[in-house]
Design a protein that fits this description.
Largest interface: A-B, 52 and 51 residues
Number of strands of chain B: 17
Strand content of chain B: 15-25%
Shape of chain B: elongated
Structural class of chain A: alpha+beta
Strand content of chain A: 15-25%
Oligomer: heterodimer
Largest sheet of chain B: 6 strands, mixed
Order of helices and strands of chain B: HEHEEHEHEHHEHHHEEEEHHEEEEEEE
Chain lengths: 374, 388
């Protein structure tokens, strides 16, 4: 069962620091994708499992969680997995939204903030607008991101991130011994098995994400395990386990053969470059600024990325979230948030070396949660 | 998956031609096919191209005039794999699916007044229902007054009857489900945690060839609902029903297995007999031409005679569903379903029998194919429901 106090504190903070200053009568947080459901999880601890979920937070009064799959068996699951005042299985949450607003906001033209609204299913979107004809809907994704980052340390999120990082490190280490002996699918099975044994969330496939690249030369892109049929020479692995919903990302490249000294040296050099880039992540900087510096470092090392390449992204309750580390992105790196730094190093017979680490941003600087692993 | 089981380019071309036929019939210049990850809602794109959407949503644009389909990926990292997975569509990476979609339509000088929408259907929601708001708005702004028309239903209906190559893949997937079932029965016992059982089954099915899989479980004396695993341990008195759904070559099969935990007793014997009789009744009733609800009615009559059990929760009796490209798809085997069964439809058959006095349920099931004169069970039936 979730610790209800944490979620009550989060709702109180949301009302105080987001709804009130923005003049919002209600916040709606929408998700229908397990990997991109951070706002719903943050407010209720509900892990979106199938269909959609919508959290309704009025300025005061009951917080409601509306969700699809509304048969009674699923209601048992939702009540067990989430914290809210009212749980409502429905494919049409507009009426519930109208009722909650009527109880707390007399205005005929309420202002409603939405997080995740761009991906909202058309039928849900239409139902909300039909029941709230005079409402003004405002996207508040960025303000919500700031709210989440600001409260991460105080409510135990960073502890969950550390635990997720430990699981990622341990499961990758478990797989390293299998390089050269097993197929990609078998190695992925070992990683998943290890991660689940070490305590990763085990809802279903999404909970331990594994991507591989194998062969000589190593491919530029990682893919699902089934694509890496044979692992003879080298293997790149990325693992992202969830722990109480919080994800980290860890990526390593391994060589199967100990005799290949030149390639080992190349691997070491790539790791040094990667470490230098991880150290760039500091609070207060813009994501674009960090990306530009990272690009310079990679270019100097002979691995210049494509102009529009993503060199990482925010990570936490969603797998990929702002700030995206890409040139030109003004989003600020906030203390309390975490970033997955993903670098690729190419240019010789080994192919592309893939490395990834998760950096926790604190007021003092960045801390690489998934290091050390060589 | 053995390479010889892969769906051929010719079969993909046939599927695409069927969708183009639906566009022709409805006078639509283009269909936008959605692929979302949650609950395997990438099923339509997988069916048409072989490409799944592992990390991010995707869109497939199918043009009626025969131009090559375009596969828009928000996960640009997956472009190389997409190119390898499909030879029938041209994968293109993008940051915003909505913006890229409009750009693609304009590049092709399409100013459609009517646009077909397919894919992403789930839990009774149509393709139009699940279309993301940003895509709907982008289309409305770019092509004001254009009408969105559902063509997903045509696609779902056309894929209910499997081809020979699909059935070969489903046999393979059923075999992997059998391996999961073996591990379940070998592992489950008092003191084992749900997490550990899950891990063992998962590992075994993945090693056996599952590229993806779904498991859910009912456990405990009050286990009314299928749930993901917790750290709770199996204990005496548990009624355990587990659903194992491995995906091989893009196709899910499903097996539902059961056991009781504790000492053998007369109640377990009665419940085991009931679960087995319900499944046998359902499979025995299946044949071409029979309406799904008639098959359900035969099971309902049997369960109605039991003082222990009911199928009546929420007014609809359920004994299974189509399962293949998607985990849950037509034909749905419910008391409301009028669809007639046809040869080479395949489905998960698992009568859901509620035990009100225990707030629990029984769910024993197999994966079946409708033959010319009955039903063939593709998974290996569970011989006995053991007490462990």
């Amino acid at each position: 069962m979730p610790d209800e106090r944490i979620f009550r504190q989060r709702i109180a903070r949301l009302r105080q620091t987001l709804l009130a200053p923005l003049g919002l009568d209600m916040l709606l947080a929408y998700a229908d994708d397990t990997l991109d459901a951070g706002a719903v999880r943050y407010l209720t601890d509900f892990d979106v499992y199938a269909m959609y979920a919508l959290v309704l937070v009025p300025r005061c009064g009951d917080v409601a969680l509306a969700f699809g799959l509304h048969h009674s068996a699923y209601l048992v699951r939702v009540r067990d997995a989430a914290t809210a005042d009212y749980f409502h299985g429905t494919y049409a949450p507009g009426e519930l939204c109208r009722r909650l607003l009527a109880e707390t906001a007399p205005a005929s033209a309420p202002r409603i903030g939405i997080v995740g609204g761009a991906r909202m299913m058309r039928r849900i979107d239409a139902d909300l607008r039909q029941h709230l004809p005079g409402a003004e809907f405002v996207a508040v994704d960025e303000a919500f991101r700031r709210l989440v980052a600001g409260s991460d340390v105080e409510d135990g999120a960073s502890d969950c991130l550390r635990r997720s990082a430990a699981i990622a490190r341990q499961s990758i280490a478990a797989a390293a011994t299998a390089v050269g002996q097993r197929s990609g699918r078998e190695i992925a099975a070992e990683i998943g098995f290890a991660a689940r044994r070490f305590g990763a969330d085990v809802l279903n496939r999404e909970m331990v994400l594994i991507a591989l690249a194998a062969g000589s030369p190593l491919p530029e892109r990682l893919g699902p395990a089934a694509a890496a049929a044979q692992v003879k020479d080298a293997l790149a692995i990325e693992v992202s386990p969830g722990y109480r919903g919080y994800r980290t990302l860890c990526g390593r490249t391994f060589l199967a053969s100990a005799e290949r000294a030149a390639q080992r040296a190349r691997l070491e050099a790539a790791f040094e470059v990667h470490r230098e880039i991880c150290a760039l992540v500091q609070p207060g900087l813009s994501a674009g600024g960090v990306a530009d510096k990272a690009r310079s470092i990679l270019a100097r090392a002979g691995s210049a990325p494509a102009p529009d390449a993503k060199l990482g992204h925010g990570i936490g309750l969603s797998l990929i979230q702002e700030p995206i580390l890409r040139s030109g992105n003004p989003a600020e790196i906030l203390p309390g948030s975490a970033l997955a730094v993903r670098t690729r190093h190419g240019g010789d017979a080994l192919g592309t070396i893939h490395l990834a680490d998760t950096v926790l941003v604190t007021a003092e600087g960045g801390e690489v949660l998934t290091a050390p692993a060589r | 998956m053995r390479p010889e089981l892969a769906i051929s380019d010719a079969e993909y071309a046939k599927r695409l031609a069927a969708l183009r036929g639906a566009l022709e019939a409805r006078d639509l210049p283009v269909a936008i096919v959605q692929g979302a990850r949650n609950w395997y809602r990438d099923h339509a794109i997988r069916y048409l191209t072989g490409y799944d959407s592992p990390l991010a949503p995707s869109l497939l644009l199918v043009f009626r005039d025969g131009r090559a389909p375009v596969l828009l990926l928000r996960d640009a990292d997956d472009l190389a794999r997409a190119r390898a997975a499909t030879r029938i569509a041209e994968p293109v990476g993008c940051e915003s699916l909505a913006a890229a979609l409009v750009e693609q339509l304009r590049e092709r000088r399409l100013e459609p007044r009517r646009i077909g929408i397919a894919g992403g259907e789930c839990m009774g929601f149509s393709a139009l229902d699940v279309l993301p708001a940003d895509i709907a708005r982008a289309l409305d702004q770019a092509f004001p007054g254009s009408e969105l028309v559902d063509v997903g239903g045509d696609l779902l209906a056309s894929r209910m009857v499997r081809s020979d190559s699909e059935i070969a893949l489903l046999r393979e997937a059923a075999h992997v489900a059998d391996i999961g079932a073996e591990i379940f029965l070998a592992t489950v016992r008092q003191g084992v945690s749900e997490r550990d059982l899950w891990s063992e089954i998962w590992h075994a099915m993945q090693q056996a060839g599952a590229e993806d899989l779904h498991i859910s479980l009912c456990r405990g004396p009050a286990s009314f609902w299928p749930h993901p695993p917790s750290d709770a341990v199996f204990a005496a008195g548990d009624i355990v029903s587990i659903e194992l759904s491995p995906r091989v070559g893009g196709y899910f099969s499903q097996a539902n297995r059961m056991c009781f935990v504790g000492e053998p007793n007369r109640e377990w014997q009665d419940l085991a007999a009931l679960a087995k009789a319900a499944l046998a009744t359902a499979i025995g009733a299946m044949r071409p031409g029979i309406a799904a609800k008639e098959v359900v009615a035969s099971v309902s009559r049997l369960i109605g005679q039991s003082p222990l059990a009911t199928m009546d929760v929420g007014g609809v009796h359920r004994i299974g569903h189509g399962c293949g490209i998607s985990l849950d798809e037509g034909p749905f085997l419910t008391s409301a379903s009028t669809i007639s069964l046809r040869p080479n439809m395949t489905m998960a058959c698992h009568p859901i029998i509620y035990l009100p006095y225990r707030h629990s349920l029984l769910m024993l099931g197999d994966y079946v194919r409708i033959t010319e004169d009955g039903a063939e069970v593709l998974t290996r039936p569970q011989a006995t429901i053991p007490v462990v």
